[in-house]
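Quality-control log, excerpt.
Job 1 of 2 completed; input and output follow.
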Amino acid sequence: MSLILLSPPASEPVTLAELKQHLRVTHTDEDALITGVLVAAVRAVEARGGLACMPQQWRLTLDAPPMETLHLPIAPVASIDAITVTDGEGAPQPVDASVYEFASGSPGRLRPAGPWPQPAPKIDGVRIDFTAGYADAGAVPEPLKQAVKILAGYFYETREAAHETRVYTVPQSVDALLAPYREFRL
C-alpha cells in the first residue's frame, strides 16, 4: 500500500496576512520566509493529524481489492474520483461504482458491495483516487488554523532543529488542538 499526492492544495487555510498578524510582524522584509514556515506548518499539522486542510487529490494503491471496509488514510474525504484495477496488459481499467459503497467525511470509508475485478500484477494493482480536505479555508475548523499558526510561529522563532544546549520539540498545544481531529482505531 502506498499513498501518493496527485494534486496539492491550491491555497493554504491561513493567509500570509493572518499569520503575520499572529506573529505581530508588520514589515514585508520576511514575507518569503513567513510563507515558507506557513507551508511547512500546514504540512506538519496535516501529517501529524492524518488530515488534509484544503482540497487535494491523493492516490491510494493496494495490492488487492479491499475485502472489508477500508478507512482512507487522510481525512476528511470529500469524494472518490476514480478507482481502477490494472489488467494483464498493464492498463488501468475503471471499477464500476456499483461494486463499492462510499461514505465521505472523517474517516472516508470504502466498502465492497459486489465482486471486484482482480488486478493482474501482484503489487499496486488497485488505484483509488480521492479528494480530501475541507471545502475552503472558511470550512477549516479554527482549532486546526490555530495549530498552524502556533507551529508556524514556533518555526519562525526557532529556525534550527537543535542548539548545543537544547533540543527543540513541537509545542504541546499543537497536539492538544489536533487531538479531536485524529482518527483512532481500535
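Job 2 of 2 completed; input and output follow.
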Amino acid sequence: MQIRTMTREDLALALDWAAAEGWNPGLADAECFHAADPDGFLVGEVDGVPAGCVSAVRYPGGFGFLGFYIVRPEFRGRGHGLALWRAAMARLQPGVVGLDGVVAQQANYRKSGFTLVHRNVRYGVAAPVAPRVADAPPVVPLAAIPFTTLAAFDRRFFPAPRDSFLRAWIAAPGHVALAATGPAGLQGYAVLRPCRHGSKIGPLFAETPAAARALFAGLLAAAPAGPVFIDLPEPNADAVAMAVAAGMAPAFETARMYVGPAPDLPLAHIYGITSFELG
C-alpha cells in the first residue's frame, strides 16, 4: 500500500465510502472537513487503486483527532488498515489524540493505548416533536453574532481552536446555524446540516437547558422533511432527556477515547457533538 495525502476530490470519494458503511455523512462535509486541516486526510492505494482512508486532523496546541478509518471490503485482512493507522498516528504524535471508536474496534484501540472516557450515542427519529420551552432565550441566526464571539465561545467546548472549520461549517450550503442570546451575551449555538439521509444537529453547545431546548426547537422547525439525528455525549443526562422527549431513540454509538490526558470538557453543556469524524 502507498499512502498519500488526499486531494479535495479524494475526500468526496471517502465520504461515499462512509455512506456505504452507514455513517450518513453530510452533503457539504467534504468542503468543511478539508477546511479543518487540508493535509489531515490520508488515502492508501494498492496498485494505484484507492483501498482505504483515515483522517488525522491536527489542531493548534497539540490536539489531534483520528477518524474516517475505512478499508474497502475487498482489501481487508491484508494489513492495509494497520498501515493506515500507523501513518495517522505518526502524523498526530506527539500530542493528545482523540477518536470516536465503533463498538467492534474499541478493544483494538485500547491495545494502542486509547482510554475510554465516555460513550457518544446517536439519537434519531423520523418525525421529531419540538420541545416547548419555558423562559426560552431569544434565538437568532448565528450570522448575527460576531465571529470572534462565536470562536471564543466554541473554544470552551472543544479542545483546540478551529476557526477555519467553523467558518466553513456555519456557512455551508444547506446548513442552518442559530444562536441563543441573553443579557449575558451568547448563551449557546447549534448547527443543522443536510445529510445523505435526513439531517443532523451538531454541534449544540448551551449554557442552560432552556437555551439548549430553544436551539433544538429552532433547528427542528427549520429541518427539511425527513429524519433528524443528534450525536450526544451519554453522560449529559439532560441531553438524553431532551432527545427522548422529542421522540428520538438510540440508533448508533461510539466510544470517545483518548491517548494522552483527556481534555476537560464541560459535558453537561454539550448537547450535541459536531461530528464523529472530527470530534
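Post-run check on job 2. Residues 209-222 form the longest helix (14 residues).
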